[in-house]
Design goal:
Ferric Hydroxamate Uptake Protein, Chain A, domain 1; 7 strands; alpha+beta; binds zinc ion; 7-stranded mixed sheet; single chain
Length: about 160
């Protein structure tokens, strides 16, 4: 009963060696993919979420954009393209989801980079409030839970004859 076919024993050993090698290779690959952003086309943006890894943070900030006083819609599915990025939207309400597998302090600038939009716009002056208070942090603003961010752009080109206010 204890006697085993030596050939069978060898192939079992090889199967274990190969399995261990594959698992080790996988462990080295996952952090590399995560760090490089996993092939998403968002330079400077948030990394791709990796299937099977747990979330390290999940918070929501709210963003409004006004251009010359008019509300601009922040579309649904920002940051959801070739993969789901750590910064994304699910609807057009301006809610930014920070769902990340690391504890990096994500910023407003990184959200815009993930979106693929420049934060500053040519021909416009940009101001920002956070929770109603003026802020000069702009792209460096760290996204926090239940934060109300309002970014306003005012056209500077014909400011004098725009609307005689
Ligand atoms: Zn969320």
């Amino acid at each position: 009963m204890i006697n085993q076919n030596p050939t069978k024993g060898n192939s079992t050993t090889w199967a274990i060696v190969i399995t261990v090698a594959v698992v080790l290779a996988g462990l080295f690959m996952i952090p590399r993919l995560n760090r490089s952003g996993g092939g998403g086309s968002t330079a400077g943006g948030a990394p791709c979420l990796v299937a099977g890894l747990p979330m390290a943070q999940h918070i929501h900030s709210h963003l409004r954009i006004l251009v010359d006083g008019k509300e601009e819609t922040i579309p649904a599915n920002v940051g959801i393209n070739s993969c789901e990025h750590a910064l994304h939207t699910h609807d057009a309400t301006g809610e930014i989801h920070v769902e990340a597998q690391d504890l990096h302090a994500y910023t407003l600038g990184e959200f815009f980079a993930t979106w693929g939009k420049p934060l500053a716009r040519e021909g416009y002056e940009m101001t920002m409030t956070v929770g109603g208070a003026p802020s000069t942090e702009l792209g460096a603003l760290q996204l926090k839970d239940k934060q109300e961010i309002m970014v306003q752009y005012k056209h500077t080109g014909n400011a004098n004859n725009a609307n005689g206010k």
